[in-house]
Amino acid sequence: MSGHVTEEVEVDVKRSPPLHHNVENLSYVHKDQPKSQKLVLVLQALFPILEWGRDYNLSKFKGDLIAGLTIASLAIPQDIGYAKLANLDPQYSLYSSFVPPLVYAFMGSSRDIAIGPVAVVSLLLGTLLQKEIDPSNKVDYQRLAFTATFFAGITQATLGVLRLGFLIDFFSHAAIVGFMAGAAITIGLQQLKGFLGIKTFTKKTDIVSVMRSVWTTVHHGGKKNRKWYWVPAIAPLISVIIATFFVFITHADRHGVAIESIAIGRTFAAIKDYELDGNKEMVALGTMNVIGSMTSCYVATGSFSRTSVNYTAGCNTAVSNIVMSFVLLLTLLVITPLFKYSPKAVIASIIISAVIGLIDIKAMILIWKIDKLDFIACMGAFFGVVFVSVEIGLLIAVGISLAKILLQVARPQTALLGKLPMTSVYRNIQQYPDAIKVPGILIVRVDSAIYFSNSNYVKERILRWLTDEEEQVKANKQTRIQYLLVLANPERAVIDKLYTSGFANLIGDDKIFLNVADVVLAYAPKTEEP
């Protein structure tokens, strides 16, 4: 009697990568072009504005002008608040909405993304830097902020040049949702200092430390002048209401969760049906931050709120970033001296209004319904930020995301296959109850590549199934399983390694088949009793 176990590997359809106009492809696609033409193509690859700028016209400029003015009106109040999160003066945040967008407009490939400081990055920068230097020491603190921005830009550009932009994909969406929600709550709690006029406030960001600081201030400071407490409070309250109203208007078209700059660009590129090269974007973002660090800017990136407004306002190209930059320049020249008079309560309300949309309850509920492990990643990042610190929350988010990937690699999905009635198709017997196991043949499919890290797990899984099958055979007096290893439909890379290693010769060429049906046809007759 004879039988076997087959491991079926699905054949992947290999698609050629899109031929973007990047430097890597130029030497191959345009190797026969004249040197002058190659130079033009290289410059266009580095500066996409040289390519799309040739077709730019007045009609497109009208849309970009309106969009640029719109996002500038949103950027000014946001930047003033975000500078506070980074423990910097307001003008430095405005600088970051002036220089980096100009650089990106020349080097970036997204037509819709709007560049500038964002709340979470500002908070993370401020939290990390104040542990090294007291923000009251402005000169040294600012120098450290610009140095951090420089190295952040170098890191981004290096990842792009080395084609390592895919590393961003290791940060799962679920972890981002949890991290952003936790960061929004942390940012909101930090605004209690300006909102309540507290002079002595904790430098820690966790909720316990913040609430202890607030409670201590209220308990000791509320004992004097209780009768007239509302007099100093009424002015900032009115300011808060007015400021919140105007900020709400500027955010009317904003929705969704803030995510990585490249993901933002891809989102809107998909809507407008054009390609976006993630590695080129990394180079552009890195270069703008390097240049920005030399012009008193701190870390800038793509903002989902500004990009949403930019898209809704009708932007056509990156010229909208240029328009915003010049509006910010005028702002810096005209009203910078007035920043010191900005009420802290108003700035706090602007920040709270800007980050409230980062808490996406619907996304959390959806993640819970779809994948419980993703939900654990989401909540781990959330509670890490809220109860410990922003950097710990970030580490938890990345750690859980990587742990899930490693778990999926080390414990790949495996399935027993059966034959669908009246067909030659074999499917998972758990997914298709009508699928019938072939007597004497155990068909196993591994739904993942087999690596050194999961080979033992796959072997143990197959042996466990063999043991279970043998017990059923003895109990029901069915045909025994006698052959262990026959391969069906391995892909080209697997076949090459089988022959290179000599394993194909060990098991024999007759043990490698095109599909499962051929295997069953070849071995099924041997399962009959003599």
TrEMBL record:
Domain of life per record: Eukaryota
InterPro entries membership: S04_transporter_CS, SLC26A/SulP_dom, SLC26A/SulP_fam, STAS_dom, STAS_dom_sf
Species classification: Eukaryota, Viridiplantae, Streptophyta, Embryophyta, Tracheophyta
Keywords per UniProt: Membrane, Transmembrane, Transmembrane helix
Record field: transmembrane: 141-164, 170-189, 228-249, 282-301, 313-339, 345-368, 375-403
Gene3D superfamilies: STAS domain (3.30.750.24)
GO terms of molecular function: secondary active sulfate transmembrane transporter activity
Organism: Rhododendron griersonianum
UniProt protein name: STAS domain-containing protein
Main subcellular location of this protein, as a coarse class: membrane
Membrane topology according to the record: Multi-pass membrane protein
Subcellular location: Membrane
Any one annotated GO CC term: membrane
Domain STAS: 431-496
PANTHER family noted in UniProt: SULFATE TRANSPORTER (PTHR11814)
